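Backbone-to-sequence.
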């Protein structure tokens, strides 16, 4: 099983932002709204799925986190490149045309350990984890714990998403938002600086390059980069 994350990739229209060490974070709420553009996940804010039978027709009902404090959590999304242990990929190729909708350019992180070290050093309040893809149809009313890192398996599994987020911060212009323990920032999106990344990141000026495939020299610490190790989360 390919359980080691050897690189992180960001498809974007603004590659220089990440190269300069700035994580441009949108809110969890904004990702939910993106479904109207066929970019997001219609289960993005789902806490539970209830299946019931009405007149011999199966219907699914979603319980959504409309009033959740985490609606305004800043999130930065990347794509994780997986490999088997000791098989370091030197050739990176995007595997699904749907990636094109996220942007025209790509940034490839060549040292995942160093990237996350700088994140921890500069922004210690941020968490991170690979997204777990699940079958919402089989939940049968069960709650989705830590839904901020759960997505629909069949619709979005191809993304192999890796999320960076901070649920102790709320990005919102809502004047009534006042939650103890959560720092409110009067904005709906914000950049968080983690230090210059020119030495551990490569910019590609056209995603076509990654669809064709590119040769990349990655630095991989196999004792560190197993996906179960790359989880920092304190979401209650």
């Amino acid at each position: 099983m390919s359980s080691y994350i050897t690189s992180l990739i960001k498809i974007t229209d603004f590659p220089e932002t990440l190269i300069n060490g700035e994580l441009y974070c949108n809110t969890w709420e904004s990702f939910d709204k993106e479904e109207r553009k066929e970019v997001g996940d219609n289960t993005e804010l789902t806490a539970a799925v209830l299946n019931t039978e009405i007149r011999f027709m199966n219907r699914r009902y979603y319980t959504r986190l409309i009033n959740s404090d985490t609606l305004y959590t800043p999130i930065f999304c990347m794509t994780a490149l997986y490999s088997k242990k000791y098989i370091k990929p030197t050739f990176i190729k995007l595997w699904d045309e749907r990636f094109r909708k996220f942007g025209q350019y790509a940034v490839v992180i060549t040292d995942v350990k160093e990237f996350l070290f700088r994140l921890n050093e500069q922004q210690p309040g941020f968490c991170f984890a690979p997204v777990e893809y699940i079958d919402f149809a089989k939940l049968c009313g069960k709650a989705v714990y830590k839904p901020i890192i759960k997505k629909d398996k069949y619709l979005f599994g191809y993304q192999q998403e890796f999320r960076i987020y901070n649920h102790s911060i709320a990005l919102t212009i809502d004047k009534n938002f006042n939650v103890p323990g959560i720092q409110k920032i009067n904005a709906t999106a914000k950049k968080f600086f983690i230090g210059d990344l020119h030495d551990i990141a490569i910019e590609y000026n056209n995603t076509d390059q990654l669809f064709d495939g590119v040769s990349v020299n990655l630095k991989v610490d196999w004792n560190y980069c197993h996906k179960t190790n790359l989880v920092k989360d304190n979401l209650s």
